[in-house]
Amino acid sequence: MKRHILALLVVALLPMASWAQKYACVNTEYVLSNIPDYAQAQNQINKLSENWQKEIENKFIEIDKLYKTYQQEAYLLPDNLKRKREDEIIAKEREAKDLQNKYFGPGGDLDKKREELMKPIQDRVYGAIERIAGEKGYAFIFDKSGSATVLYASAKYDISDQVLDLLGYKPAAAEPEKSANTSGGNKKGASNPEMNRPR
After folding, report:
1. Residue 23 maps to which CATH number?
2. Over the stretch 164-181, which tens digit does the pLDDT of each residue have?
3. Is 89 exposed, middle or buried (0-12, 13-18, 19+ CB in 10 A)?
4. Spatial distance between the Cα atoms of 45 and 42, rounded to a whole number of angstroms
5. Interior angle at CA 180, CA 177 and CA 185, nearest 5
6. Which of 4, 57, 143, 169 is the most buried (most CB within 10 A)?
7. Is there a single domain that holds both residue 31 and residue 51?
8. Range of the domain at 74
9. What is the pTM of this model?
10. In angstroms, what is the C-alpha Rg of the chain?
11. Which residues of the chain are modeled with pLDDT < 50?
C-alpha cells in the first residue's frame, strides 16, 4: 500500500518538477551573423567554391570541344583511331567527375575546409551557451534558427545577445524576429545548417 501511495505521489509531483525547470532559446543564425570571423570564413569558403566550380566547368568545356571535334572528324578516322579518341574523351570525363567529387562530394575538400574554418567558431558559440546555461541554471536551451521546433518563444527568454556579449561581440543590427514581432514572442526562424549540433 505504501508503495502505491509513493508511486502516486511521484507521478503527481513530476509535472510540478518540470515547471520548475528554466528554459531559454538562442538564435544561432543571429549570433553567427554578428561575429566577423564567421562572415570572413563564409566568404573564404564561397571564393574557394567558386574557383573550384570554374575549374570543373573549364574541364567540361574542354571535353565538349574534344567531343565536337571528334564528331566532325569521326567519319574520316579509321576504327582504331576512333576508339583511341573516344577513350581519351571518356578518360577526361572521368577525370573531371573525380575532381568534382573530390571538391564537392561528401567528405570532400569543401566539407573539410568548412569544418576547419567554421568548427572553432561554432565551438566558441556553444561554449558560451553552455556557460550561460550553467550560470543561469537553464535546463534546456533551444536553437530557434535550427531544425528544433519552437512554435513560440518569448523575447525575454532569448539569450542570443548574452551569448554575443560573452564572446565579446556587440550586435550589428536588431534581431529580425525581435523587431518584426511586437507582441514579445518569436516564431521559429529559418534553418541554419551550419549549426546543426550537438557534436
Report:
1. 3.30.910
2. 988 898 887 654 444 433
3. middle
4. 5
5. 60
6. 143
7. no
8. 42-110
9. 0.63
10. 28
11. 1-18, 151, 175-199
